[in-house]
Amino acid sequence: xxxxxxxxxxxxGKHLVLCAGLFGAGVLLQPVxxxxxxxxxxxxxxxxxxxxxxLLLSALFFGGSRKPFFRWATGFPASVxxxxxxxxxxxxxxxxxxxxxxxxxxxxxxxxxxxxxxxWLVILKRLNHFTRRDIPFLxxxxxxxxxxxxxxxxxxxxxxxxxxLATGRSEWRGTDEKGGVTELPFTxxxxxxxxxxxxxxxxxxxxxVTLYTRSGRRxxxxxxxxxxx
Length: 229
What we know:
Elements: H1 2-33, H2 45-63, H3 68-73, H4 76-94, H5 98-103, H6 105-128, H7 135-154, E1 170-175, E2 181-196, E3 204-213, E4 218-224
Helix pairs in contact: 1-4, 1-6, 2-6, 4-6, 6-7
């Protein structure tokens, strides 16, 4: 019993060391990627690369599912370690400012890739010995896989722009951190800027804006700190 427990502890340790190595590799890669990440991986490159990786991983698994690596990667310690190594740092970084995530975005990308690799191999392992009782398991794990994969592969298509508004003027262009200008499919007009000072409450900053879409739709909105539209 004790030897078995020690063996399990060593297995968890090996997987956690692997995840720590991936995190460290991401830190080293971050200066190369920069704050904007790797936009070259946007659609359709991300879809082709992701699909190709899954096909290759599936072919290797069904061609050698009894090999030590696949037994090691589909074990319970691998799953738990991959989840903990991804979720715990995400909670810590999620409770801090955004620039902290930008510093470690490559690390999260590598940890997410390993998590999805383990998850996909676990799904393939269950499919390899499929019974009707496995249907709920497969639905849950495939749902999780699709959700995380969609978020991970779609991150390269995300575009963050800054729009500077002046009261009474309309703007339809945004700039990225490199100064590039992009025309947006809508126009924003700042109607008024609200600033309230109350000694009993935190200062309130809000913007009353009007949005105009190309289809002619007009929408009024109040934008506040932590209350986007």
